[in-house]
Amino acid sequence: MFAADSSSERATSIEDYQNTCREFIIDISSDYKDWVDRYQLGEQETVRRKTTINEIVKTTNDWINRFGSTIKKIDIIMNDGVNKMAENTAGYPFKFDVFVNHASRYTTHQVGDVRLNLKAVPRPGRLARVGNYHKDQLLLINSSSPVNFTLSKESMSGADLLDDYIIIDAKNCQRHDVISLTVVVEEVEKDYVTESRGYSTLILLT
To answer: Are the C-beta atoms of residues 200 and 84 closer than 8 Å to each other?
Structure first.
């Protein structure tokens, strides 16, 4: 018998659900690569974005296989991978990175306070700030155990260089829990948002 989550009725075993979700990731990646073609970006950029999507498929499915020990964990890893594909299909018109322990996108951290370093550099004449993921939701965060987070208000004000931290309180988590966090950064010119991009990070607690 496998670990029970609220959505476990969707599969007869963890292995079945892992297989279903890995196949879904592969299937939906074709849709995102089709969108890349529609953007008509030029050969080099098209190849770069499609290569990134293929790498996301490979890594996401590896994480599903290695760390997806419950339905909830598999869902978190799968949805994080879909978010990553969408983000890299759209691309980044300004420099934007998130680091945990000097690693990005797929990372590990000990149980406790997790520090995510946001770095964004807007284009000349513009400012960068953290924006809402949805109208009344600052961040998208999904975790296999309950967590809280803090972010300084200064990060939402706009700066020539955004370099700040999101602190995830994961002290109540266990080893091998997974956390997916998506933060949105806006590029602003004269109080008008010119571009907005998300960046998803998947964290394995060790």
So the answer is: yes
**pTM value?**
0.91
SS3 21: helix
Last residue of a domain, one of 90, 111, 142: 90
Structure tokens at 68: 């997806």
Residues 45 and 20 in one domain: yes
Residues 26 and 99 in one domain: no
pLDDT higher than 80, residue 3: no
Q: What is the rounded CA–CA span in Å between residue 63 and residue 68?
A: 7
Residue with tokens 């060790």: 206
**36 with 116, same domain?**
no
pLDDT tens-digit map of 75-122: 999 999 999 999 999 999 999 999 998 999 999 999 999 999 999 999
Please give the angle made by the CA atoms of 184, 185 and 188, to the nearest 5 degrees: 140
Number of domains into which the chain is organized: 2
- Domain range for residue 189? 95-205
The least confident of 7-11, 55-59, 65-69, 79-83 is 7-11
Q: Are residues 109 and 179 in the same domain?
A: yes
pLDDT tens for 33-45 read 999 999 999 999 9
User: What does the alpha-carbon distance between residue 30 and residue 103 come to, in Å, rounded to a whole number?
Assistant: 27
Which residue is it, tokens 């829990």? Answer: 177
Whether 130 and 197 map to the same domain: the answer is yes
Assigned token pair, 51: 């290569």
